[in-house]
Write a structure and sequence with these properties.
alpha/beta
C-alpha cells in the first residue's frame, strides 16, 4: 500500500476551521466528492491568504472556479505589492502525487488568455464577468503577475508542468531579468509548514539590547560582545519565553547540580556573575547598532533581527528562576557576558548557524542525545504530529511531559526505529541492548560514497514518515509490556530470556506484521491484539530456536519438571551481534513459513 503521509491529516480540519463559514459547500450528490470539492476550493483561498495580504473573507471571495473559469480557481489583486495572483488548487486525498497534466495545461492556457487580453475566453463565467473590469485594470497597471499551483501532495511538481509556465514566461517577458510574470508551486510540505509554523524562522523576530563594555568584530562575520544586565535577560525571557532558545540543542533542564549552582550565584553573588559564568552565545540574521553609539566605547544599543540563543539555555533559565516572584528591590543586580554573531554575510547561514550551535555547546557537558536533537528529522516529526495531538519531545526540557498515550520522547523513538530499521546483520538491535549511545551519534562512520553516513541518520532516515515513527513506538510499548509480563511470571534462565530477547522479538514484529504501515495514526484495538498475540508467539518460537541452536537446554528435575538452563546468560547472548544474527535469521525463517490468513499485514488494503 502507499503510505498516506501524516501531514495530510491536519489539512482538512485547518481548511474547515478557516473557511466553513465563507466557502460554499455543495449539499446534493455524492458527499465524499462534495467534501473534496470544498477542500480544493478552500485550498485556493488558503494559498491566497498565506501568500498575500488578504484576510479570510477576502481570500474566500477570491474564488472564481466553475464553468468557463479557464482552469483558474482563485484570483486576487494585492494593492500592497502591486501583484495579481492567479491560483489553481487541487486537494489530493492520498497526500501523494500532483495535479493532472491536462488540468495544469488548462490553467496555463487560462493565465495566457488573461495576459494576452483575450477576456472573451471567460465570457461564460458569471464569477469572472463580475470582476473582469477590476482584472483588466489590474493587468493594465500592475507590476507583477503570479501563477500559483497549489496541491496537497508531497511530490514536487514535475518538469513537464514547470516547462508550460517557463515557456509562457519567455513569451510575455522582455528579457531574462524581467520579473513581470512568475510561477510557483505549493505542495503538502509547504502547506504543513503553514499549518505547524515550520516555515517560521527559529528564534525571535527582533530584540533590542544594551551592551556595556562592548567589543565589535566586523570581519568575516559581524559580531558584538559585551555585558548585558541580568534584569534585561529576565525581561527578554518574560516577553519571548522559550522562543529565545528554540535553536538551542536543549531546553532548560530545571533542577540540576549545575543549574542550582548558577541560581545560587545569581541570588548571592550577582555582582560576580560575569566572572563565574560562561555567559551566552547567540546569532541573528542581521545586526543593527544604534548609530549614535557607534563611537561609544562604554555602551552600545542594538537591534538583532532573527535573534536566537544557541548556547546558554541553562544560564538563562537559571537567571529567570532566580528572578521569579521577587519584588523589584530584591532582584539581583549583575551582568552576564553575551556574544551575538550576525549571519548576514554567510553564504550558507543555516549551515554556519548549526556549526556555531554544535561547537559552542562543546564547552559544557552535552549528551549525545542533545546533539542528536539538532538533526532536522526530529523537528519535522514533532511538527507533523503536534497538529494531530501527539507530542514528540526530542529535546530535554524541564517541563517535558511523561510518555503516555499522546506523548513520547527520543529514547522511545530511538529503540523503536532501530528495531524497525534493523537489517540482517543485527547491528542496530545489538546496539540497542549494548551500546545505545552509538545510535545517537551523528558521527560519519560510513564511507563517503554513502548517502546516510551516520548511524543516527540510518535509524531515522528522512524517508521515514512521522506516522510510522509514532506507530512503531506504540507497537514497541505493546511488545515490551508483553515481554515484561512474561518475564515477571518466570524464573531463572527463562526470566533472563524474556528480559533480554525483547528487541529481537520487536524486530521480528516489524519484519513480519509491518504494523508501522497502517494508515491510522493510532494503532487500533485489533492491531493491538494482533501485536500482543504475535509477541507471545514469536517469543515462544525464539525460545525454542535458542534451545535448538544450543544457547540453552531443558534439564529434567525431580517430579518430571523441566527447567531451562542456558550455556551463558541470555543478556550476553542478545548483546552479541553474531548470536543475534543467528537467532534473528532463524526467527524470520520460522515466522514467514505460514501465510497467517487471519493476520493480514497491518495497513494492507
Amino acid at each position: 500500500m502507499v503510505d498516506r503521509p501524516v501531514e495530510i491529516l491536519a489539512l482538512p480540519p485547518k481548511l474547515h476551521a478557516l473557511f466553513d463559514a465563507t466557502v460554499p459547500k455543495k449539499t446534493n450528490g455524492d458527499a465524499n466528492q462534495n467534501e473534496r470539492d470544498f477542500l480544493s476550493r478552500a485550498l485556493s483561498s488558503y494559498a491566497i491568504h498565506k501568500l498575500t495580504d488578504a484576510d479570510i473573507a477576502q481570500s474566500a471571495a477570491s474564488l472564481v472556479d466553475g464553468g468557463g473559469d479557464g482552469g483558474i480557481d482563485g484570483v486576487f489583486f494585492s494593492a500592497t505589492t502591486d501583484t495579481l495572483w492567479l491560483v489553481q488548487s487541487k486537494y489530493i486525498h492520498s497526500g501523494v502525487g500532483e495535479p493532472d497534466l491536462g488540468e495544469v495545461t488548462k490553467f496555463k492556457a487560462g493565465v495566457e488568455f488573461l495576459l494576452e487580453g483575450r477576456f472573451e475566453a471567460f465570457a461564460d463565467s458569471k464569477a469572472w464577468q463580475a470582476i473582469m473590469p477590476q482584472i483588466e485594470a489590474a493587468l493594465k497597471n500592475s507590476s507583477h503577475v503570479r501563477a500559483v499551483l497549489c496541491y496537497s501532495g508531497l511530490g514536487l511538481v514535475s518538469e513537464d508542468r514547470k516547462r508550460l509556465f517557463e515557456s509562457l514566461r519567455a513569451k510575455v517577458s522582455k528579457d531574462a531579468n524581467d520579473d513581470y510574470f512568475g510561477f510557483q508551486s505549493i505542495n503538502l510540505t509547504t502547506l504543513n509548514d503553514w499549518i505547524t509554523g515550520g516555515g517560521d524562522p527559529r528564534g525571535v523576530e527582533s530584540v533590542e539590547l544594551e551592551l556595556l563594555r562592548p567589543g565589535l568584530v566586523t570581519e568575516p562575520h559581524e559580531t558584538i560582545y559585551g555585558l548585558v544586565s541580568l534584569d534585561a535577560l529576565d525581561a527578554l525571557h518574560r516577553k519571548h519565553g522559550k522562543k529565545l532558545v528554540a535553536a538551542n540543542l536543549r531546553g532548560f533542564k530545571g533542577r540540576t547540580d549545575v543549574n542550582d549552582e548558577i541560581q545560587k550565584t545569581v541570588s548571592d553573588e550577582a555582582d560576580l556573575f560575569f566572572y563565574l559564568n560562561n555567559g551566552l552565545t547567540a546569532y541573528c540574521d542581521r545586526l543593527e547598532i544604534n548609530n549614535i553609539d557607534r563611537a561609544n566605547a562604554e555602551r552600545k544599543r542594538l537591534t538583532a533581527k532573527g535573534f536566537a540563543i544557541i548556547n546558554g539555555a541553562q544560564t538563562l533559565g537559571s537567571i529567570v528562576k532566580s528572578f521569579d516572584g521577587k519584588p523589584l528591590e530584591r532582584q539581583p543586580k549583575g551582568y552576564a557576558f553575551i556574544k551575538i554573531i550576525s549571519l548576514e554575510k554567510c553564504e550558507d547561514d543555516r549551515a554556519f548557524a548549526d556549526r556555531i550551535s554544535r561547537t559552542a555547546n562543546f564547552q559544557n557537558h552535552v549528551e549525545l542525545r542533545d546533539f542528536a536533537a539538532a538533526y532536522e528529522f526530529h523537528q519535522e516529526v514533532s511538527r507533523a504530529l503536534s497538529v494531530n495531538g501527539v507530542g514528540y519531545h526530542y529535546k530535554t526540557d524541564e517541563d517535558t511531559p511523561p510518555n503516555d498515550a499522546s506523548n513520547f520522547d527520543m529514547e522511545e523513538a530511538l529503540t523503536a526505529c532501530a528495531c524497525l530499521q534493523n537489517t540482517a546483520d543485527c547491528d542496530f538491535i545489538t546496539r540497542v541492548a549494548a551500546n545505545r549511545d552509538s545510535l545517537r551519534s551523528l558521527e560519519m562512520v560510513f564511507p563517503a560514497g554513502e548517502v546516510l553516513r551516520s548511524r543516527h541518520e540510518r535509524v531515522f532516515p528522512h524517508s521515514l514518515s512521522a506516522r510510522s515513527v509514532w506507530r512503531a513506538v506504540q507497537v514497541q510499548r505493546i511488545a515490551l509490556d508483553a515481554m515484561k509480563g512474561a518475564a515477571g511470571a518466570a524464573t531463572g534462565a527463562t526470566k533472563s530470556f524474556y528480559t533480554n530477547a525483547r528487541w529481537v522479538v520487536l524486530a521480528g514484529l516489524f519484519n513480519r506484521l509491518k504494523p508501522q504501515n497502517g494508515e491510522a495514526l493510532a494503532v487500533t484495538a485489533k492491531e493491538q491484539a494482533d501485536v500482543s498475540a504475535a509477541t507471545a508467539e514469536y517469543a515462544e518460537k525464539l525460545l525454542a530456536l535458542s534451545v535448538a541452536k544450543g544457547f540453552a537446554s531443558y534439564e529434567q528435575q525431580p517430579g518430571g519438571i523441566q527447567v531451562l538452563k542456558s550455556t551463558r546468560d541470555f543478556q550476553s547472548v542478545f548483546k552479541t551481534q553474531g548470536d543475534c544474527q543467528t537467532l534473528f535469521g532463524a526467527l524470520k525463517a520460522e515466522i514467514w513459513k505460514a501465510e497467517y490468513p487471519a493476520q493480514p499485514q497491518m495497513g494492507a488494503q
